[in-house]
């Protein structure tokens, strides 16, 4: 039970900062996932130029 | 076979310093360093009040108003230039990125060092991140972001130092590198090569992090004053202080890049490679054009803010005149100079505009933190810095300039080493 | 370049939009701890004896204040200091002397607690706002944020400078005693009790004595409410108590901005990632177009040079043919001339023979 706005803010802002950190870490992972080269996704970047 | 006196590594480094030429600049630097040493001793033996005019009514003076606020705002060239080049794709600013990142890194590093003097118990500075998290405080956010951003800047800047260390070659005679030092450098080379590669591969995410972190802490420096509406003059107090600080930091950063580039061209022309020299005109024109748009937007935002709070009548007071000087002389005027420079492709206008903008940002940060702050206190209770207080700030700036001179002279900042040519 | 201005405007709009509303809702719901105590100061009863200052110094181990008999101390307005937690100032209002005691207001939503980035300030359940000197880093942001200008700093200490202010005698409250100043007050100008009861007492006094008091309890709502409440016979402004502070707690001014920041962390990667990929795509298209243009130019060049070569060959062939024809013609002509010459010679020889 939060008696003061201060108590409320300490709790919610602490949680928010943690989530912000998680967001940044996940963003980096997501960026790496998006730009993965052929060792990972199997499809090379220059697939258009390859002739079949 | 000459009998070589085995000089110790320590003596070697001391000799590097004592053998510097006795130019007026170096002598002045030495004098200021002496003051710095004196103030450091006094601060940590006699207390803050022995070296400053801070008191109970004015807890923040120029160490916060100038060293922290102006330092951070003027170091904004780092995130603006690198995002322009790497995120928005303006390749023609590439040669300006390394000097901008160097300035930013040195700026933030010495902001932290200046805080070591201002803060009462600097050894407790890690407390907010380790012992007790005061998450309701804007200062918590400033501290967290400045700390992380300093690390990001260090990583972004490190290739400059690594390339230098990797490219040091042994020579003969007076300028020979100490054998032990050289051995260590050779041993380091493969590790530096690998680390450098990783760092360069991280450029894009680091740049994005830089923009995010900079947005947060540049605006938060303004937000610091939101908590004291009763102490800040209505013309400067606004719910949009964070937006003002962030937008003006972009103009400040870009203008500093132009301003420093102007100074560097005069003093360090011989250190600049062809690319740098060829691109420099384009850099000034492009950044200047961006600045004109930013300053125009900033000007209108300030005008609209006065309207929203219905503060027009304040313009007709003494403080109002000062506000108009800041807004018209140091925002509107450089905006027009930048615009004229862009239209006529005249870099001379832009260099003047850059100086005015930098002055305007310093004036704005001074106003918010010291001039318009506590405006209601009687004159006898107002703050003015003491001589030693000013000398400490001078010392901090001198440290930055000296470090910059060293880096510019020795490291690949204004030029690219052939073996490390970039291909971004 | 317009992109940059657009982006910055977007950020501004986002920040502005996130700011005002939530705070209002948040501020109102919090009623404070039910056991919060408060002190009522009745300015009509204060005679400026300053016994409260002496008691405060005694309780907190501070140097004794200026002697009580020395009335010259009232010639200037004093404020709290590193070694002075409370002061009584004298104000001349309509010819009469009015005295006001100044000390920490122990706000319901303390600005100092909100500002402190190491949580060195605590609003205790008994209503007092206390400070923990073992956590303090010395940033002095609490001093910037306090609207009443109360916290003082021990600047003279090099290695242990700390913030100094009234504690509402929190340790004494734990022992069930009264705050030092309240106990020492001889006229009953200071009354201590539960905040709700103190407010009731104040309202009753004002209601029972129409005209004696200004109809306002200072501290009931100022800056979100304080534990130190004041009723006065004269305008509060005249005794140095600001009436322009508003009722918004300090925390409400910052909660909006702190809320906008996480949005930046979520928003910027979208915009910057988008800008980066747009540019990468633009570069790719430019590269493809350039390659197409180059190969088209190469083809065109090849065709042109082939055509030119063919033309040259044809011309050479026709020139050769012309030359050949000419030679044939010349040869024919020569042959004919020779034949004619031979015929002429033969005719001449025949004529000679007759």
In short:
The complex is a heterotrimer of chains A (52), B (424) and C (354). Chain A has helices at 5-34, 38-41.
Features:
heterotrimer, B: 424 residues, mainly alpha, Formate dehydrogenase/DMSO reductase fold, 71% helix, 0% strand, C: 354 residues, Alpha-Beta Plaits, two-stranded antiparallel sheet, 11% strand, rod-shaped
Topology:
The complex is a heterotrimer of chains A (52), B (424) and C (354).
Chain A: H1 5-34, H2 38-41
Chain B: H1 9-18, H2 24-46, H3 62-74, H4 77-87, H5 94-118, H6 127-130, H7 138-167, H8 179-201, H9 203-223, H10 241-267, H11 274-309, H12 318-344, H13 347-371, H14 387-410
Helix pairs in contact in B: 2-14, 3-5, 3-13, 3-14, 4-5, 4-9, 4-10, 5-7, 5-14, 7-8, 7-9, 9-10, 10-11, 10-13, 11-12, 11-13, 12-13
Chain C: H1 2-18, H2 20-29, E1 37-42, H3 51-59, E2 87-93, E3 96-102, H4 111-115, E4 121-123, E5 129-131, H5 141-145, E6 152-153, E7 163-164, H6 170-174, H7 180-184, E8 190-194, H8 195-208, E9 228-231, H9 250-353
Parallel strand pairs in C: 1-9
Antiparallel strand pairs in C: 1-8, 2-3, 4-5, 6-7
Helix pairs in contact in C: 1-9, 2-9
In total, how many beta strands of chain C?
Answer: 9
Largest interface: B-C, 71 and 75 residues
For the sheet with most strands of chain C, the description reads: 3 strands, mixed
Work out the helicity level of chain C: 40-55%
The residue ranges of chain C in which pLDDT falls below 50 over 5 or more consecutive positions are 12-27
- Average residue pLDDT of chain C: 89
In total, the number of domains of chain C comes to 2
Order of helices and strands of chain A: HH
- Mean pLDDT of chain A, to the nearest integer, reads 80
Strand % of chain C is 5-15%
CA-CA gap between termini of chain C: 114 Å
Helix content of chain A: 55-70%
Determine Rg of chain A (CA atoms, Å): 21 Å
Quaternary structure type: heterotrimer
**DSSP summary: helix tally of chain C:** 9
CATH architecture of the largest domain in chain C: 2-Layer Sandwich
What is the tally of beta strands of chain A? 0
Category from helices, strands and their pairing of chain C: mainly alpha
């Amino acid at each position: 039970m939060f008696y003061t706005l201060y108590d409320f803010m300490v709790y919610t802002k602490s949680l928010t900062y943690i989530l912000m950190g998680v967001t940044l870490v996940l963003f980096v992972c997501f960026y790496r996932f998006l730009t993965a080269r052929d060792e990972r996704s199997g499809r090379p970047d220059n697939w258009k130029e390859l002739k079949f | 076979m000459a009998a070589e006196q085995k000089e110790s590594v320590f003596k070697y480094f001391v000799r590097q310093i004592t053998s510097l030429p006795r130019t007026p600049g170096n002598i002045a630097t030495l004098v200021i360093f002496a003051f710095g040493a004196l103030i450091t001793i006094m601060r940590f033996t006699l207390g803050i009040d022995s070296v400053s005019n801070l008191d109970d009514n004015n807890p923040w003076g120029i160490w916060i108003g100038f060293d922290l606020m102006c330092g951070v705002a003027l170091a904004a060239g780092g995130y603006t230039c690198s995002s322009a080049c790497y995120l928005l794709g303006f390749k023609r600013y590439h040669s300006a990125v390394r000097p901008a990142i160097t300035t930013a890194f040195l700026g933030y590093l010495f902001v932290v060092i200046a805080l070591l003097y201002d803060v009462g118990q600097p050894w407790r500075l890690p407390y907010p991140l380790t012992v007790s998290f005061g998450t309701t405080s804007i200062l918590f956010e400033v501290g967290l972001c400045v700390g992380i951003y300093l690390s990001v800047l260090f990583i972004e800047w490190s290739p400059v130092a690594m390339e230098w260390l990797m490219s040091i070659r042994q020579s003969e005679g007076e300028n020979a590198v100490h054998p032990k030092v050289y051995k260590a450098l050779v041993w380091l080379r493969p590790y530096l090569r690998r680390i450098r590669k990783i760092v360069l591969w991280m450029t894009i995410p680091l740049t994005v992090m830089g923009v995010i972190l900079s947005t947060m802490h540049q605006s938060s420096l303004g937000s610091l004053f939101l908590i004291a509406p009763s102490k800040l003059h209505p013309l400067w107090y606004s719910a949009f202080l964070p937006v003002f600080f962030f937008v003006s930091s972009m103009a400040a950063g870009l203008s500093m890049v132009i301003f420093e580039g102007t100074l560097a061209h005069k003093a360090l022309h011989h250190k600049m490679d062809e690319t740098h020299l060829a691109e420099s005109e384009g850099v000034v024109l492009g950044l200047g054009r961006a600045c004109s748009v930013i300053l125009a937007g900033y000007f209108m935002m300030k005008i609209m803010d006065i309207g929203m709070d219905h503060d027009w009548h304040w313009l007709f007071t003494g403080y109002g005149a000062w506000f108009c000087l800041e807004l018209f002389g140091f925002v509107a005027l450089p905006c027009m100079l930048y615009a004229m420079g862009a239209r006529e492709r005249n870099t001379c206008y832009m260099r003047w505009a850059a100086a005015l903008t930098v002055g305007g940002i310093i004036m704005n940060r001074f106003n918010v933190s010291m001039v318009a702050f506590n405006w209601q206190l009687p004159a006898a209770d107002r703050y003015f810095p003491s001589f030693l207080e000013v000398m400490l700030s001078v010392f901090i700036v001198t440290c930055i300039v000296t470090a910059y001179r060293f880096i510019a002279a020795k490291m690949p900042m204004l030029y690219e080493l052939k073996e490390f040519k970039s291909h971004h | 370049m317009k992109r940059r201005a657009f982006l910055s405007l977007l950020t501004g709009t986002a920040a502005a939009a996130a700011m005002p509303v939530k705070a209002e809702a948040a501020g109102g719901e919090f009623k404070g701890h039910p056991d919060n105590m408060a002190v009522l100061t009745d300015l009509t009863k204060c005679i400026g004896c300053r016994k409260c200052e002496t008691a405060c110094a005694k309780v907190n181990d501070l140097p004794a204040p200026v002697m009580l008999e020395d009335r010259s101390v009232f010639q200037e307005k004093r404020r709290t200091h590193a070694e002075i937690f409370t002061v009584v100032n004298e104000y001349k209002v309509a010819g009469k002397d009015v005295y006001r005691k100044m000390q920490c207001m122990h706000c319901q939503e303390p600005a100092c607690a909100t500002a402190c980035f190491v949580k060195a300030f605590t609003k205790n359940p008994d209503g007092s706002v206390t400070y923990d000197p073992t956590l303090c880093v010395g940033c002095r942001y609490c001093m910037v944020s306090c609207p009443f200008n109360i916290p003082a700093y021990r600047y003279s200490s090099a290695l242990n400078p700390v913030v100094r202010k009234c504690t509402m005698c929190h340790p004494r409250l734990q022992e069930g005693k009264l705050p030092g100043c309240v106990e020492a007050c001889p006229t009953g100008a200071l009354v201590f009790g539960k905040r709700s009861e103190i407010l009731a007492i104040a309202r009753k006094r004002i209601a029972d004595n129409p005209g004696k008091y200004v109809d306002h309890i200072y501290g009931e709502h100022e800056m979100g409410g304080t534990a130190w409440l004041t009723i006065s016979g004269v305008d509060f402004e005249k005794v140095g108590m600001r009436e322009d502070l508003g009722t918004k707690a300090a925390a409400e001014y910052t909660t909006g901005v702190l809320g906008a920041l996480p949005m930046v962390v979520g928003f910027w990667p979208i915009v910057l990632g988008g800008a980066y990929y747009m540019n990468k795509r633009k570069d790719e298209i430019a590269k493809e177009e350039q390659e197409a243009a180059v190969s088209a130019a190469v083809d065109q060049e090849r065709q042109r040079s082939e055509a030119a070569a063919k033309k040259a060959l044809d011309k050479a062939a026709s020139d050769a043919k012309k030359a050949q024809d000419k030679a044939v013609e010349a040869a024919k002509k020569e042959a004919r001339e020779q034949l004619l010459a031979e015929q002429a010679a033969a005719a001449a020889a025949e004529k000679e023979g007759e």
